Amino acid sequence: MGEIPNFPAGTIVSYRVIAYDYAGNFAIEDNMGNLYVYTVISKFPTMLVPLIFIVVLVAIFMVKSKKL
Question: What angle do CA 29, 35, 41 make, to 5 degrees?
Fold first, then answer.
């Protein structure tokens, strides 16, 4: 079992998976020679979720009230 540690937003992470068994055998998964790559993004502030929800509800209410 493995884990990639936390990195600051904007960090580009490249990795491959190497697995060993108890007999000493191993396997490498490196995306056919191209390492797996991703860019760390900043966390979405959870405080904004209720605000976004309220804004969407108000927008829906305004659109529906204009149709009446």
Answer: 120
Residue indicated by tokens 């979720």: 49
What DSSP string describes 45-68?
Answer: PTTHHHHHHHHHHHHHHHHHHHH-
Nearest Cα neighbor of 37 from 13, 16, 55, 20 is: 13
Report d(CA 20, CA 16) in Å as an integer. 13
Tens of pLDDT, residue by residue over 35-62, are 999 999 887 667 777 888 899 999 988 8
Report how far residue 35's alpha carbon sits from residue 33's, in angstroms, rounded to the nearest whole number.
6
Half-sphere exposure for 56 (CA within 13 Å, toward CB): 6
